[in-house]
Design a protein that fits this description.
The complex is a heterodimer of chains A (163) and B (124).
Chain A lengths: L3 E2 L6 E2 L5 E4 L5 E4 L2 H8 L11 H6 L24 H47 L6 H8 L9 H10 L1
Antiparallel strand pairs in A: 1-2, 3-4
Chain B lengths: L16 H10 L3 H14 L20 E3 L4 E3 L2 H8 L2 H10 L7 H7 L15
Antiparallel strand pairs in B: 1-2
Chain lengths: 163, 124
């Protein structure tokens, strides 16, 4: 049993799901649902359709390079059954998926940081430009800023002298 | 391509949807054309220089072929005219761009690694 990936949206296709198209040059195209199949028939490019994985990876929306991606792959060679290896693999699967999910979450928060700083800058600029539109008591509260207080150097020198 | 009159009473001569769509099936897909072009470029051959096989079923005995658009023309002059068309130029631009999407791209985007084919059994 193999869990295939959808040609269009890259989601996993479980047995008994989706549809498969074999072109007359024997190339196989698998689709997870009729939505993906229809989009293929319309000759849409998955790289240009925003909800596909191909688009998200290409535009830096999702994490693309990570060591956790190395585990799941197509292995085109016979594997000799080993009970211990199988057991360890089954144990490792949930662990690796958890690590991957955590890293993906981190990637998205890192990605969104830039937008947040930009938003803050925009807000500051707006406040500066349109501050006269606010009623007076609000202006006073908005203008409260931190004032840097200089600690005089002399004191420290005196302290040093005493020592 | 295909019949015309959908309101015909005679069953034999009604519009056949299959024959109307047949041309669509015969057109080569983008990735197949791209592979062909890459193969030619790797071999270092020019698309026009290769000798085409004579086929009497095709227009112009199959001698005037546009590789980018997968079309046969009746004569050299028609082919030249096609080369000057907007459609052909658009097609060239598309084909000179990045490689079309494949199943491997879909797998990589899904978070799979490169396929593992094991050790090479024979030294090439």
């Amino acid at each position: 049993m193999r869990l295939e990936k959808c040609w269009f949206c890259s989601s996993t296709i479980y047995p008994g799901h989706g549809i498969q198209f074999v072109r007359n040059d024997a190339k196989i195209f698998r689709f997870c649902r009729s939505k993906c199949h229809k989009n293929f028939k319309m000759k849409r490019n998955p790289r240009k359709v925003k909800w596909t994985k191909a688009y998200r990876c290409l535009h830096g929306k999702d994490m693309t390079q990570d060591s956790t991606f190395e585990f799941e792959r197509k292995r085109n060679r016979p594997e000799r059954y080993d009970r211990n290896v199988t057991e360890q693999t089954l144990k490792a699967i949930p662990l690796i998926t958890k690590i991957r999910h955590d890293r993906q979450k981190k990637h998205i928060t890192e990605r969104q940081k830039q937008g947040k700083t930009k938003e803050r800058e925009r807000d500051a600029k707006e406040l500066e430009q349109d501050i006269q539109m606010l009623p007076k008591k609000d202006v006073l509260s908005a203008q409260k800023t931190k004032v840097v207080v200089k600690v005089s150097q002399q004191q420290t020198e005196e302290n040093l002298m005493e020592e | 391509m295909g019949g015309k009159c959908p309101h015909r009473k005679v069953k034999k001569r009604r519009l056949s949807h299959k024959t109307a769509r047949r041309g669509k099936f015969l057109v080569k897909a983008d990735d197949a054309v791209y592979d062909e072009l890459v193969k030619l470029a790797d071999a270092g051959k020019d698309a026009d220089a290769t000798q085409l096989p004579v086929d009497e079923d095709l227009p112009g005995m199959g001698q005037f072929y546009c590789l980018h658009c997968d079309r046969y023309f009746a004569s050299d002059s028609v082919k030249e005219e096609h080369y000057r068309s907007k459609r052909h130029k658009k097609r060239i631009k598309q084909m000179s761009g990045p490689a079309p999407h494949t199943q491997l791209d879909a797998d990589l985007a899904a978070g799979m690694g490169m396929p593992d084919n094991g050790l090479k059994l024979m030294s090439m």
